[in-house]
UniProtKB/TrEMBL annotation:
InterPro entries: Terpenoid_cyclase/PrenylTrfase, YfhM-like
One example GO MF annotation: endopeptidase inhibitor activity
Superkingdom per UniProt: Eukaryota
Protein name, UniProt field: Uncharacterized protein
Amino acid sequence: MNVLKGRQYSNGGFGYWTHRNDSYADPYMSVHVAHCLAVVMDKKVLDVNANMLSNALKYVENIESEIDQLSYSKYWSEKTRCSLMSYALYVRAKHHRNVAEEASKLFKRSGFDKLSLEALGWLLVALSSGENSNKHQTIEIIYKHLKGKVSETGETANFITSYESTLCTKLCKGLQAHKVKGAWKSTQENCFVLIALDKYFHMKEKDIPEFVANIWLDNDYCGQHEYK
């Protein structure tokens, strides 16, 4: 954490490597670090420096203006901008900020054309962080859109609608089926997949197993194993 704090820029953001005078904080990396801090705090893994956290959240809160200050951001598509802003709202929601109204406004401004599937998922979480006048209507619109995008087989599906849906279990099977040598395509994919699987585990398998399994082969008793 001390190394990370030393790499923070004065505006609260972070870069891909070290804090250099001839470089600038990267918006995606800055939001990603703020996301990491939320996970660390939630899991109570390490103590997070309050000043570093405050500055990081300030950067994330001002993500659009931070993007506009970069000379190369003029080459970014609107989809890239809106998706990054959606990620920022998601991270702020993970830090227990009420960003539902901002999420609703961003969705109205961007629509489906300017939001990736990941961005829609981030917005769903952001919309659930508080109340606004048309929160539930917006969530239903996004859900309906996502349901139309699901690629489903007998056992797997590409993404989730809700934790109560059978698609959730299929999604988890699909994610695990796409591992190569125990991992996914990148460190960021590993991060998001593991967070999703951890969430699924605690939602669907929260009960601690405590039972005895008896094994039979026809009429012959083969043994038992106790699970605790």
